């Protein structure tokens, strides 16, 4: 596979944002340490992960075992897929029906500036069949990423003091519904504002994010200021999803994030995958997290119902946390 040259850095813009914007303050979690053969090291790593989930809700994951060559091939494949000269060909994936499993879109507006292709990556794979080398790379990438996600489900269960299969069972992750967005910002160098994607949280257990060019993603911390995410090359940014917040009754919260694009100068590709419960899984705050001091703060409903609660379908997902929340935590 061809090597990709070191990418340029996209400088974040702070204009037009009122809340404080700081550079990187995002913790790092070492995936291998969560499974260390040394029990002391392992328990320290699990304790650290629990602290990070509670205090931040997002972190850089390093030593995750996804080959760097696979990530580089993924970015190259996406870059070729979004080639401006083949724009007409990909319009075939424009949304025609709510049941479409592959969906393409291009937005140039004051509220959103990106080109994207969304696919369902689990429980069944739905990828653009051409070019075949690209769908093979996607297949490999999503399989590798699922291993990481299942591993994190075990580790997060332990941070909560449960057996390692707790999260997997609570979300029925073996049949989990994963939607992945491959994004190009700005859409072929044209944007109508500095917003790539506006403020939002994401549904599901966790969101995994990889990118080819640093900068652009901004995360609102629980302390109320924005952080520019400077994801180390080949690391994965993990963000906790709304349904982990619901399950833990607000102990592990999701958080608002957005993408800034900067003066159309740099092309950035990201792959954000929402790893969710199975569509029919009923998710509500677990009894272990509900007590007099922490009354039930969210409604229970199936994952499918919660995806549809925002008036959208299950692929064009947006957070429905506002409709599900009973109390502010
Ligand atoms: O591209 C990014 O950095 C973020 C994408 C995102 O937040 C999403 O697709 O939900
Ligand atoms: Fe997101």
UniProtKB/TrEMBL annotation:
Highest taxon in the source lineage: Eukaryota
SUPFAM superfamilies, per database record? Clavaminate synthase-like
Q: Which UniProt keywords apply?
A: Iron, Metal-binding, Oxidoreductase, Vitamin C
Cross-referenced InterPro entries: DIOX_N, IPNS-like_FE2OG_OXY, IPNS-like_sf, Oxoglu/Fe-dep_dioxygenase_dom, Plant_2OG-oxidoreductases
Report the sequence similarity comment from the record.
Belongs to the iron/ascorbate-dependent oxidoreductase family.
Query: PANTHER family per the record?
Result: OXOGLUTARATE/IRON-DEPENDENT DIOXYGENASE (PTHR47991)
Give the protein name, as stated in the record: Fe2OG dioxygenase domain-containing protein
What's the source species for this entry? Acacia crassicarpa
């Amino acid at each position: 596979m061809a090597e990709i040259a070191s990418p340029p850095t996209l400088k974040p813009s702070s204009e037009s944002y009122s809340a404080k914007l700081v550079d990187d303050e995002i913790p790092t979690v070492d995936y291998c340490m969560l499974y260390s053969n040394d029990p002391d090291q392992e328990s320290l790593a699990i304790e650290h992960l629990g602290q990070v989930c509670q205090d931040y809700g997002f972190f850089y994951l390093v030593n995750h075992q996804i080959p760097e060559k696979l990530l580089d091939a993924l970015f190259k494949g996406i870059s070729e897929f979004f080639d401006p000269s083949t724009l007409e060909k990909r319009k075939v994936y424009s949304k025609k029906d709510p049941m479409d499993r592959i969906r393409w879109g291009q937005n140039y507006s004051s509220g959103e500036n990106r080109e994207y292709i969304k696919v369902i990556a689990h429980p069944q794979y739905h990828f653009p069949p051409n070019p075949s080398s690209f769908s093979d790379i996607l297949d490999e990438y999503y399989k590798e990423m699922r291993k990481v996600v299942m591993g994190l489900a075990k580790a997060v269960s332990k941070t909560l003091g449960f057996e390692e299969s707790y999260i997997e069972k609570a979300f029925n992750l073996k049949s989990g519904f994963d939607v992945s967005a491959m994004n190009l910002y700005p859409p072929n160098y044209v944007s109508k504002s500095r917003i790539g994607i506006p403020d939002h949280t994401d549904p599901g257990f966790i969101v995994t994010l990889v990118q080819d060019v640093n900068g652009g993603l901004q995360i609102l911390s629980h302390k109320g200021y924005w952080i520019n995410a400077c994801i180390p090359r080949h690391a994965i940014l993990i963000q906790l999803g709304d349904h982990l917040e619901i399950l833990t009754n607000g102990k592990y919260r999701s958080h608002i994030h957005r993408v800034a694009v900067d003066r159309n100068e740099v092309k950035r590709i990201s792959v954000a995958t929402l790893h969710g419960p199975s569509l029919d899984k009923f998710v509500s705050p677990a009894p272990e997290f509900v007590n007099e001091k922490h009354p039930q703060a969210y409604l229970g409903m199936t994952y499918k119902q919660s995806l549809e609660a925002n008036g959208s379908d299950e692929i064009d997902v947006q957070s429905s946390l506002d409709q599900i929340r009973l109390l502010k935590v």
